[in-house]
Amino acid sequence: MxxxxxxxxxxxxxxxxxxxxxxxxxxxxxRGINLAGVKIHSVSSRPKALESFLGKVERKKYTDPFTxxxxxxxxxVVCLFMSDLGRxxxxxxxxxxxxxxxxxxxxxxxxxxxxxxQHYTCKLSGRHSGPxxxxxxxxKFEIQVRTILMDAWANISHYLSYKNEDSIPxxxxxxxxxxxxxxxxxxxxxxxxxxxxxxxxxxxxxxxxHAGQSVSEINADTVAAxxxxxxxxxxxxxxxxxxxFVQEVISFGYTDLRALSADIEAGLEAALExxxxxPPVAQPGETDDGLFSRVGIARTSLKHSQPGYHKKLRRKWNxxxxxxx
Length: 325
What we know:
The protein has 12 helices and 5 strands. The chain is α+β, with helices and mostly antiparallel strands. Helix 7 packs across helix 11, helix 9 crosses helix 11 (about 295-305) and helix 10 (about 270-275) packs across helix 11 (about 295-305).
């Protein structure tokens, strides 16, 4: 093994390559996960710091550090639900050459939940070819995949300097195990809630749009289904816009989806005339087709059928502008 000075010089000479590798890995992960339609919390990457590298070489007694140390470039994907782990695995296997995989989620146990994650050692695949990749195509890198709760626990335990179970004081060990179990249960419950939410939204769409059933409850899913039924040919509004709209109509006093639908339809003709005379300006992320989005046309319809709604809406936007100033 080379001495510390030689390792430092060799490490510094490689830093540019590993920084470029991190950028490519993060870009590929971002793009692949987005194309797969997986909603995640974050994707991050980093080249290993010098002191961390030197400490690992000394601790592991590496004889060939730049070959044996496989996390000189590393990326981390923090997802929302445990079911996303498998979908992200598919993305990784489709975009990179996976050399090895360690699954601490399936192979671990709940008592060590805080240290669970999936680890992949990879190299760039054949799709990364050409002069742009020649200087990094032979380098290994690591990808970690965790849920938000796994990541939160790992970060807190790192802050407490407890790298593994052996480092935890005995009188605190039981509490650590209990908390690990609670987080494991919470992760499972979030998964259950996500499935239930998806099923509820699908049922609401089927009842309102396809079956034509009369639904009274006002929430984000029923309102989204109503807007799809009334304005299915318009650009869909994102979930935040729909939630904002739901909060508006409930605060105005609507408690029944049927009444809301009737008032939207009552003001629709006037809203369409306004849209024709003064086409809306597209917001970031919206299509500039001169038409209101689904929430936009519904909001404008209510403005015409319910003048009080317009006044309340105007007060809301004025207070928001003052807050931002």
